[in-house]
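Handout for the seminar on molecular recognition.
Each group receives one record of this type.
Step one: identify the two inputs.
Step two: read the structure output and locate the region that could contact uracil.
Step three: write two sentences on what you found, then compare them with the reference statements printed after the record.
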Amino acid sequence: MGSMDAISVIRTKRDRGELTPDQIDWVIDAYTRGEVAHEQMSSLAMAIFLNGMTRTEIARWTAAMIASGDRMDFSALPRPTADKHSTGGVGDKITLPLAPLVAACGAAVPQLSGRGLGHTGGTLDKLEAIPGWRAHLSNAEMLDVLRDAGSVICAAGDGLAPADKKLYALRDVTGTVESIPLIASSIMSKKIAEGTGSLVLDVKVGSGAFMKHLDDARELASTMVGLGTDHGVRTVALLTDMSTPLGRTAGNALEVRESVEVLAGGGPADVVELTLALAREMLDAAGLPDADPAKALADGSAMDHWRRMITAQGGDPDAPLPQARETHILPAPSSGVLTTLDAYAVGLAAWRLGAGRARKEDPVQAGAGVEMHAKPGDTVVAGQPLLTLHTDTPEKLPYALEALDGGVVVGAAEAGFHASPVVLERIG
Ligand code: URA
């Protein structure tokens, strides 16, 4: 591979050619080592964004990203491993109740998670709202928590798919995130390197997701299912609605509170429905089809596993959660039916209130976010609270309210309203 150079790789993709396996292996390795410059990879990422990749190229690209770092191995655990990954949404706190729930049903759940960027939230940011909780664990600590609590939710170590870490940060600042080949290879390289035996993908569709249209989400899902299956990971995908936020909260501590309500047997119907649907898929894929996740929510065993997991990672499950310094209520402008509560608008508002970050190194506010008192299809009366905005930085309130402009619509009661189901399709 001595004759490779970045410019010829970029030109191949720029001119709509197919990259050879050698070109792909070389460019990923050389970029990880710093030999290919950021501006060169940025140009290649844009060429891929515009011209796509064949399934053969995507498979090789994914394999090269896996090979850029370590692979983990959970085969010594006495239980089958199951993991889920969401492509990212607003109010998507499902990992929090799901991991301990699936652990309570007999699988081991090694859940390597990320932080939020832009309008989408990140699981680690949410859990860090719990006083004392630690996201960064050594491999040995991770295994200890898994053995003790059945599930662990933590940050991926630096050794796992380092090529993706660099490339994802680059894509984030070069307008090349929303590309099916790049998203599929990014997610699957991490999940395959993590060494899970089975994987359930929650592919979000709608305004609050990277994929706005069902056809694109289908293509992304089937690409990822193909990659997982080729690497010996039992993989299925659910396409799920992200036109409106999940549940009634978007924001870190607010979402932890709602997740605990689900673990206590309550919580919003859509969060419970999706948690159970994903749990059933994970248990099936892990070879535990007879487990009953609804029972584990109702009888408190999922809550027990949650408390063990949080405690094992230094957190206090009984500590009061942080609250924002200021709140602001958005009332219903008229009486009728809430017809639109747009996921992107709410996500952007939560982000501007301080729940998310603009740059990777920025801190997040634990208490900031949006609480939703009504969901699409609910009847509302003029003046009743629709949303409560929470923030430590009230000077940002006007920007948050601007984000909600046009995203919250109350229609005439007789207009009729058809709520979208949470789970739209299954691929696998
Ligand atoms: N999540 C990832 O891990 N990678 C992407 O490219 C998009 C979402």
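Reference statements: The mean pLDDT is 95. Residues 326-411 form a domain with the Aldehyde Oxidoreductase; domain 3 fold (CATH 3.90.1170.30).
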